[in-house]
Amino acid sequence: MTAIEVDGLVKTFGDTVALDRLDLTVHTGEVHGFLGPNGAGKSTTIRVLLGLLRKDSGRATLLGGDPWRDAVALHRRLAYVPGDVNLWPNLTGGEAIDLLGTLRGGLAEHRRRELVDLFDLDPGKRMRTYSKGNRQKVALISAFASDVELYVLDEPTSGLDPLMEAVFQDCVRDLRDAGRTVLLSSHILAEVEKLCDRVSIIRSGRTVESGSLTDLRHLTRTSISVETAAPPDGLAGLAGVHDVAVDGHRARLEVETERLPDVHRHLAGLGVRSLTSTPPTLEELFLRHYGDQPAGAR
Amino acid sequence: MSMTATGVLARLAVRRDRVRLTVWLLALAALVGSTASAIEGLYATPAAVAENAAIRASSVVARAFTGPATGGNVGALAVAEALVFTCVLAALMNVLTVVRHTRQNEELGRAELTGSTAVGRHAGLAAALLVAAVADVLLAGVCAVALLANGLPVAGSIAAGAAIGASGLAFAGITAVAAQVAEGARAAIGLASAALGLAYLLRAVGDATGETGPDGMTVTAAWPSWLSPIGWAQRFEPYGDQRWWPLALFGLFTAATLGLAGWLSAHRDVGTGMMPVRRGRTRATRSLRTPFGLAWRLQRGTLLGWLVGVAVFGLAFGGIGDQVDDLFGSEQSAELMRQLGGGGSLVDAYFAAMMGLMGVVVAGYTLQALLRLRGDETGGPAEIVLATAVSRTRWLVAHVLVALAGTVLVLFALGLGTGLAYGVVAGDLTAAVGDLLVTTVAQLAPTLVLAGFVVAVFGLVPRAAVALAWAAFAVCLVVGQFGALLELPEPLIDVSPFSHLPDLPAQALTAGPVAAMAGLSVLLLALGAVGYRRRNLTLH
Ligand SMILES: Nc1ncnc2c1ncn2[C@@H]1O[C@H](COP(=O)(O)OP(=O)(O)O)[C@@H](O)[C@H]1O
Ligand SMILES: [Mg+2]
Predict the structure, then answer these.
(1) Which residues of chain A have pLDDT under 50?
(2) A single GO molecular function, which one (chain A) (predicted)?
(3) Of A13, A45, A152, best ligand 1 pocket probe by most atoms within 8 Å of the beta carbon
């Protein structure tokens, strides 16, 4: 089953091509990371999926329906947290939570109480007086307290402090354990790494990679720091090894993750005394996609 | 120490406000100047001037509303017409300026930023007051010049300017205190505005219950006027007895408020007031949880303000209904009234003109309420709401219904207020209330057309909707209401739907135009709804 199926989606705003044949597949029950730098088209994709924007061409299916035609029926089955939460300045946070939840089709009462405590929100204050983070908490509480199939979260943690980010991560894990589907857009790599089963990486409105984190490791390099019994010669000659720095019996090097087995075998022959290796992060993955090829980058 | 860097902050404030304050100053000077020139045109002979001054003194409503004249000359009439109103506006300018550079700065986090640099703790307040004071001095100057330009005497014009500037400054002081006490910027504006309303009311009571002088033109105000800075401003009596001692009173009062504000400022933290923050409900009531309930909740505060406003206006203008023949009896003004309000008796023409004009003004409320839809779309909650199970049609209908229901209420309050007051002074309550209710509620028909236009542009060309809506409103107001006066060609005047309503109550209401307008508005509303359902949301 797929919760979201996007195929060759195109969306332009005047001269700006926001989505340029974008593809995205989100399976039911997974937490899917939707990664891309600012302006890549994440919010635009999400808004097309929510029927807020009309697509120019391509195919988009959400929970088996047409996001534009079946908008209202589909919206009963999902909860959305936008990147910029701007609600009603005169309403209190508590009122906004209830209102949004009810408009969506109802709130789980005990869950609402629990979440207000967890996120440490004062629901009696007017939205006007809330900081960005608190406004985000209002939208998150109302979404997480809604018992729906799909949660669409557009950069939901940009205003949260680290403690609240941890609460947020727990909430997303709970959803995954309960078999719910989550689409989490982000440019914060650590968050996606911690939470997501699969990721899609987009750039300039086009999908550049998608798969599980393990699938994507072929694009990344592992950093290795090693101390060997014999002098660590011949490392630079190995295929897939970069940036070798040797200092006596110590060496630091970058290895294409696919080539790790060859390098390990070579190092074993030298007699490893100590070895630390840093696993690839999405940060590097991004660097290779955007930093390494500045042409065309905005 | 505590005032360090006041100069820098004041310069920053002036830079941010140079356009705003310039517009305020020029608009107020234009108001004063154009009033003087209108009075000069309307009352050409000394006899007409004296007569008008006497009518102002004899009408309790006129005394309460604008205050009496200070003598039987053109300048005194101009002051009677414009001074109180200009003082209120000058006070508002000060309220908004002082709050903007104190609590609003704090709320937006700007004060925290500047506060962490080498800025004294009272510097923000001092800078705001400095800017306000400079603006008030300039205001006194431009108002005096505007009066002088109409050929009025020098000393009187300077006194009138001083009265306006001084009352403005007094409210800068009041706002400085309010800004220390209130829980936030909006509350500070509310508190200072309440003080302004009270000041207006006190002097209204003072003028209304005052004693008419032996000349029958001047009035000695009763004691409540002495409790009001606007009352003090009137005591300058420009073009009348001309006194300067109110300046000392203003000086003392302003110094006292500044001292109090400074003391309070030393005893509070940045970003908080002295009054505890009012907490609201932690849960939404059942009635709030629908698009309709939400639209009502968002609209009701504004609506209440409009209801009170038009009711007071109606009471005042209905209350002088029996004096219309005296007030507008001269050949010129009767002619003017007929041009604005159509044929029939002078009283009917007066009500037709007033209620016709107010019909368009009330449509301003309708527009304001409808354009909330647009405000909610750009950087507002529409994005998240329309991602819930609320359809666009339902969202649109809720807002339109609440806006139109509010309009009906406002028109009803206007007719009821005017009818009641006129019925009491004319001695026939049922007929007056009935006639005026029909007159005002009939304005709903052209208002619906304008509302339909707004919804249509919102649905079809959202980015231009706000500008087009207010442009249409301006056309209705200027071309439609004053077109005959400006001798504009008939087809142009007919662009305004308000021109197609018969001149009630002078003429009878006919079904034809009302039905045509209703039909057109339904068409426009439907067009807007279809456009809105089919288009992209424009969220920026
Ligand atoms: N309403 C709009 N009008 C014009 N351009 C837009 C609009 N919305 C988005 N864009 C453009 O489309 C591109 C993608 O934006 P967006 O989807 O917001 O990116 P992201 O959410 O990944 O940061 C950007 O270049 C942005 O400027
Ligand atoms: Mg975005």
Answers:
(1) 292-298
(2) ATP binding
(3) A13
Tens of pLDDT, residues B83-139: 999 999 999 999 999 999 988 887 776 655 555 565 677 888 999 999 999 999 999
- Find out whether the peptide bond into A232 is cis, omega within 30 degrees of 0: no
The DSSP bridge partners found for residue A126 are: A92
CATH code of the domain containing A20: 3.40.50.300
Mean confidence (pLDDT) of chain B: 89
Q: Considering the domain boundaries, does residue B453 fall inside one?
A: yes
- Short-list B286, B535, B536, B289, CA closest to B389: B289
Could you give phi then psi for residue A3, rounded to 5 degrees? -85, -40
CB contact under 8 A, A124 and B379: no
In a domain, residue B284? The reply is: no
Total domains, chain B? 2
The residue out of A185, A216, A247 marking a domain boundary is A216
Return the residue of B nearest to A135 by Cα. B381
Does an H or E element contain B81, and which? helix B74-101
User: Do B479 and B343 fall into the same domain?
Assistant: yes
Subunit contact B184:A129, Cβ cutoff 8 A: yes
Q: Does A107 touch chain B (CB under 8 A)?
A: no
Residues of B in contact with A80 (CB under 8 A): 384, 387-388
Q: Is B52 exposed, middle or buried (0-12, 13-18, 19+ CB in 10 A)?
A: buried
> Of A200, A216, A232, which residue sits at a domain end?
A216
Nearest by CB to A104, which of B277, B294, B388?
B388
Residues A46 and A137 in one domain: yes
CB-based contacts of A48: which residues, under 8 Å, 6+ apart? A9, A11, A19, A54, A55, A60, A67
Chain A nearest C-alpha distance from B39 (Å) = 44
Q: Which of B219, B249, B274 is the last residue of a domain?
A: B274
Q: Do A95 and B283 touch (CB under 8 A)?
A: yes
Whether residue A113 sits in one domain with residue A51: yes
Q: Is position B279 within any domain?
A: no
Are residues A203 and A229 located together in one domain of the fold? no
Q: Is B540 in the pocket of ligand 1 (CB under 6 A)?
A: yes
State whether B263 and B311 are in the same domain: no
pLDDT tens digits for range B507-539: 777 888 889 999 999 999 999 999 999 999 998
Quick check: CB of A16 below 6 Å from ligand 1? yes
Atom of ligand 1 nearest to the CA of A205: 14
Cα B296 to Cα A224: distance, rounded to the nearest angstrom = 64
Residue B285 lies in a domain: no
Dihedrals phi, psi of A250, to nearest 5 degrees: -100, 150
User: Per the CB < 8 Å rule, is B289 touching A103?
Assistant: yes
- Expressed in angstroms and rounded, the spacing between residue A19 Cα and the centre of ligand 1 is 9
Average pLDDT over residues B254-277: 83
User: Which residue has tokens 């990721």?
Assistant: A199
How many C-beta atoms lie closer than 10 Å to residue B426's C-beta? 14
A92 closest CB neighbour out of B280, B389, B391: B280
**Domain co-membership, B464 together with B499:** yes
Q: Is A82 in the pocket of ligand 1 (CB under 6 A)?
A: no
pLDDT of residue A297: 38
Residue numbers of A between 178 and 197 with CB closer than 8 Å to B: none
User: With a 6 A CB cut-off, is A33 part of the ligand 1 pocket?
Assistant: no
Q: In which domain, by residue range, is B343 found? A: 291-535
Give me the number of domains chain A comprises. Answer: 2
Strands A221-228 and A206-212: unpaired
Q: Point out the ligand nearest to the CA of residue A46.
A: 1
